[in-house]
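re: that chain from earlier
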Amino acid sequence: MNMNTLFEMQRGLDSYIEKEHDLEGTDLFDQKVLALLVEIGELANETRCFKFWSTKGPSERGIILEEFVDGVHFILSLGILADLTDAVPASQQPVKTATDQFLLVTEAVHTFHRDKTKEAYQSLLDRFFTLGDMLGFSAEEVEQAYIAKNEVNYKRQQSGY
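^ sequence. v structure.
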């Protein structure tokens, strides 16, 4: 996965959105953190990994991948805001369950929100991409899905989303 390309694509999308919505120079860090937490929740909801009370299975793999990539967008965007675009996800030993990994990811978001350090961002990136590994997504698959969703996001902005 070419993180430099993804960061540059995200930088372009962020700039486009900020210009179109007259947000240039506005501090959007907190809004992007909250957006990331919402996307993580949507991803968890599609996997249904925590729904012990239900027998219904997870959503289709493509839907789960799209939700994962929505999270990638906001993680990259936060890295750009914090000037941490040299970060590359490193493989970690996954925890026992997807639910546990989701909790680690959420904890990492809160830590990065509070600390805004390179170490906190790296932990967020590592934990999120480890979750992607647990969900069965390859780096190439995530990259291609990101590129496709980035195009969709531009089209949404152009149509008044």
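The longest helix spans residues 61-81.
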